[in-house]
């Protein structure tokens, strides 16, 4: 017998007893990555709305758009062809992460949170090719480790939005992450992505990492046979692990796409929408899993606005 969404959430709450993945006070914030190997599963939507949920709670978040397609960059209405630096410049060591980060949410109030986004551009494809040809698996991890503490410590979480493909960059992201999230749509075709993800986790573990991974189901409709069967299968696979790793599901709502097209989070589009409540629930579970359930707003987020 497999768990229902409600009992899976309870299992997630139990899972956090395993041990916090959060960095000690004074260290960098937890790094959370949203991963899948195909488009159209709600990966970027999940990344942006989880970040927005933290922002709604007064927390500060840094998003790195590592996808050459730049969907998160498009959401923020940042011109990838402009003169400002992107993550390509950072990864080629021509600038710091702070120089790339652009403030997309937040005001000047000391007690409010903020969202900063590091934009992508198509040249990130070159980075993927370099990582593959040179077999570099810890390049991203090393780049983040070299960033100044004074910048990264201003945030409560760092989110990485990953390209929808199985690549050397994906392996780099898992090694650099404290909490990789497989964004898995409740459709039969997505089950192949679950196998690929667990294989990637095993490779990371073989390289000495110990990521505390979770699965975020999307496009979930409890009345649909396909959704229910996929949920049961995922719960069965997850149940082979000693602690719960299945987060509360996100439904399939047209409002998510409408909000994205308007350049808004689901909270800005309609904070009373069921999807907003679902992302807030998932965000709380992630904060618990990362050992940051008691996180309080940062008052010193860098003051840099989008031009």
- Judged by helices, strands and strand pairing, the structural class is alpha/beta
Q: What is the averaged pLDDT score?
A: 82
Number of helices: 14
Calculate the terminal CA-CA distance, rounded to whole Å: 54 Å
Low-confidence stretches: 6-26, 298-307
- What percent of residues are in strands? 5-15%
Count every beta strand, where a strand is a DSSP E run of 2 or more residues: 7
Shape: globular
Main sheet characteristics: 7 strands, mixed
Radius of gyration: 18 Å
The sequence of SSEs as H and E is HEHEHHHEEHHHEHEHEHHHH
Question: Fraction of residues in helices?
Answer: 40-55%
Report on this model:
The chain has 307 residues and is α/β, with parallel strands linked by helices. It is built from 14 helices and seven strands. It is 42% helix and 12% strand. A hairpin with an 8-residue loop joins strand 3 and strand 4 (114-118). Helix 2 (43-56) crosses helix 14 (274-289) and helix 7 packs across helix 9. The chain is globular and about 50 Å long. The N and C termini lie far apart (54 Å).
In short:
The protein is α/β, with parallel strands linked by helices. It has helices at residues 5-15, 43-56, 71-75, 87-91, 97-100, 124-134, 139-145, 149-152, 168-176, 191-206, 225-238, 254-261, 266-270, 274-289; strands at residues 31-35, 60-65, 102-105, 114-118, 157-161, 179-185, 214-218.
Task: Identify the notable features of this structure and list them briefly.
307 residues, alpha/beta, 7-stranded mixed sheet, 42% helix, disordered C terminus
């Amino acid at each position: 017998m497999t768990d229902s969404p409600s009992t899976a959430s309870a299992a997630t709450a139990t899972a956090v007893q395993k041990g916090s993945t959060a960095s000690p006070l004074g260290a960098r914030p937890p790094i959370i990555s949203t991963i899948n190997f195909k488009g159209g599963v709600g990966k970027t939507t999940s990344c942006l709305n989880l970040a927005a949920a933290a922002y709604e709670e007064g927390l500060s978040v840094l998003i790195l758009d590592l996808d050459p397609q730049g969907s998160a960059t498009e959401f923020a209405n940042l011109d990838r062809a402009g003169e400002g630096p992107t993550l390509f410049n950072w990864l080629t060591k021509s600038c710091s992460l702070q120089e790339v980060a652009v403030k997309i949410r937040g005001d000047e109030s000391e007690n409010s949170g903020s969202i900063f986004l590091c934009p992508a551009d198509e040249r990130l494809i070159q980075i993927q090719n370099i990582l593959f040809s040179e077999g570099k698996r810890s390049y991203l991890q090393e780049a983040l480790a070299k960033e100044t503490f004074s910048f990264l410590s201003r945030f409560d979480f760092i989110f990485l939005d990953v390209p929808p493909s199985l690549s050397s960059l994906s392996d780099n992201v898992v090694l650099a992450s404290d909490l990789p999230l497989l964004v898995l749509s409740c459709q039969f075709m997505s089950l192949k992505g679950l196998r690929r993800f667990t294989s990637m986790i095993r490779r990371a573990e073989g390289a000495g990492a110990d990521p505390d991974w979770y699965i975020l189901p999307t496009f979930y409709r409890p009345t649909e046979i396909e959704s229910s069967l996929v949920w049961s299968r995922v719960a069965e696979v997850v149940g082979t692990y000693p602690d719960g790793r299945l987060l509360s599901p996100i439904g399939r709502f047209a409002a998510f796409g409408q909000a994205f097209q308007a350049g808004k989070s689901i909270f800005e589009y309609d904070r009373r929408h069921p999807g907003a409540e679902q992302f807030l629930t998932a965000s709380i579970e992630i904060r618990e899993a990362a050992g940051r359930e008691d996180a309080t707003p940062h008052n010193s987020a860098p003051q840099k606005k989008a031009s």
